[in-house]
Amino acid sequence: MLQYHISDKLEVTVKISNNPYDIPPEKLFTMAARKNKKRSFLFVSNVLGKHIPVNPNLAILNGMALAARYYEESCKTQLPQTRDILSVLKTGKGLEETCRKIKENLFPMTQPTLFIGFAETATALGHAVFESFSDNAFYIHTTRENITEAKNKIAFEEEHSHATSHRIYPLGFDMLESDCPVVIVDDEITTGKTALNIIEAIHRIHPRRAYSVLSILDWRTTEHRALFDEKEKTLDAEIQTVSLLAGTMEVNRTSHNKLPLRISDALKESCPMNSIAMNTAGAFPAEVEHLSLDSFFSQFVLCSSTDSNGDKNTSPYIKGTGRFGIQSEENTVMREQLRQAGLYLKRFRNSKKTLCMGTGEFMYIPMKIASFMGEGISYQSTTRSPIWPNNTDGYGAKNAFVFKSPEDANITNYFYNIPYGHYGEIYIFFEREIKKERLEPLIEQLKKSGAEKIFIITCSRNKDSLPDPGYLGSYPREDVVFLLKDVGNLIREQGNEEREKAIQSGVHYSEMLPIEYRPSDEYMEIFHDSLKKYDEKIAIASGLVAEKIIKKRGRNIVLVSLARAGTPAGILIRRYLKHRYDIDLPHYSISIIRGKGIDENAIRYILQNHPGLEIQFIDGWTGKGSITKELHQACAAFEKKWGLPLSSDMAVIADPGYCVSLFGTRDDFMIPSACLNSTVSGLVSRTIHRADLIGENDFHGVRFYKELIKDDVSNLFTDSITEKFPSVTATVLDLLPQALNTRTEISWRGMKDVEKIQKDFGIENVHFVKPGIGETTRVLLRRIPWKILVRPGANHLEHILQLAKEKNIPVETYALSAYQCCGIIKPLEKK
Questions:
Q1: Which of 145, 351, 657, 800 could form a disulfide with 425 if both were Cys (CB 3.0 to 4.6 A apart)?
Q2: Short name of one Pfam family for this protein (predicted)?
């Protein structure tokens, strides 16, 4: 039996009933009074690194101890590492060496298991437990943040907390919908009702057979334990409880001597001048320096949060925190990133005693970074938990600091137990960038610690410094907004011969700009003839693909065309949907570059400005599928880096290459916009990406050819097709059922033609083969073709033959299965 005289107003008696590892209770916790109507005292952990500063490796090792306990209870097998862990927890000796050895020999996990850490105190504990396993482990933690873009939210309440609402935001993380065991991790269980609340919420989504509740301390009464038995029967599931220490407690109060009504009164009573001079002394004139660590992280989650005033923070989250879900396979990369960040911060140290502080839920990443910053490091975190300070031996909060939360000014935050002048430096870590004026209340309190220097560490800077799109192009703004940077005055146009030599010598095509000629009368004649011939066919194809988009994706979408060939296609699809459904969908045109990927700044701009809408990518047609493949890779890379999945199911008017599922037709025919350059695409050039022209926060580049306005037929083209929509709608609706019910084959059939051409003509570089009428037209306009291949019996190739004749390019008959024709780039080494 242990008695804790928290004050002359409050006494708690603890009876230990289970201590499987024989850890002395004083190694795990002390006690303090707290300002909470539901429970007036707090078990203050000596191993968490929350209210009391600890060696960061001790907090990590504590998580390993809890992980070992779970493994041994679940698998009924002793771990050889447990002995070393317990030796350190009991004696404090060999901490760093033991942590290093266990990190090199992590615990096995026999089946996929999901660990869930409770915000805010147990986010780091849950993460440390999860990271103790070598594989088959998954982790997500609850949060009190209101994240606006995230879907699939799970919400539940905490029973006796000062901040009761919890949310879970699984993002691209399906473990909550699997059959795997779920392990709830918390620092302490008093009644267990919060754990049962989350178990019930998860069980509603996907019932499973096995749950565990893992904690350092377990103070449930017999009645509370019976609630777990009842819940097992109700859910038809096993709920296992595992802890390092279990028992019961009894609270004795003296009603005639109440605790102070205000925490500020308690601070004045309990914080003498020689301890901290809290609320009575001025701030120490400490130097403040801001440092950023975002270059050390490779994966972010592009979501915004909103505080209680409705103010939005658009800085990305770090994926590695676990707030949105992570798995053990990601740990190796994350450990190395945190090690590098710690070594970087170590270079700024000038004090033998340094305090590193996490903030709120953001605990584990700062803790890990701190563990790599050298000797003399202590770690703790800010908290929402209000504790009555009392500068007496054995009490859990010797002093207290109060400030408005930088994340939400309506929330009061605290930190505790910093003796005046004890630390020469304080590093305080924020996951996301905070406006500097919001940091001032916290900095003012940190200065009262007597530290000579304070470092504000931001791990993810605000990427909201994206440019606002200016007016660009010749289309009406309601038709399309170009997310592109006009660099026309900064780049020299180059002729086809010069560009071809540069490309074949290794210069990327996006780093150069071809000369944009005024279209000749012959070109314009081809354009007008093909427009007259195919306007109805294009209108029907545009209507069909638009209908397919609505049926497959719904109306909560934003259209994103791939400049520049995709721009008029996006406009036509948008206009058809306006005609047919009277909906005004936002439409942007952005850059994608083969070999460099999509413009991520443009994607981020769209997602930030249209939360809740999904992106539908659009292009004009498919050739051999290079851009289709580039888009697949770009979407996967974006999700990996920013944490948000994008659908790479691109929609096109024509898909002769059999590359996509959303198309209007698979016929290889002449789309008139293919025979002109900027003058049918809003007077913009092909997109540009060169390091000296495009900055970190810029959109990809383009040139706006204002001087060609008299030759522009961009709106003539889209208007001509739009005029056909009323007359072709009935045809579209007649064709639609068959189009929807016919199995869509994505066979990449066109690539068989391409591979055959490569073999027959000795073409090593696949990008030298340009199949289809659209690509053949473009290669004749932009590059130096070697020859043009035409399928026997192909019709309507007048413009191809005209361009080839003008440029003296040989035309050969060749058996093609998917395409009407194909252009071959001239390898310069051929004679």
A1: 351
A2: TRSP
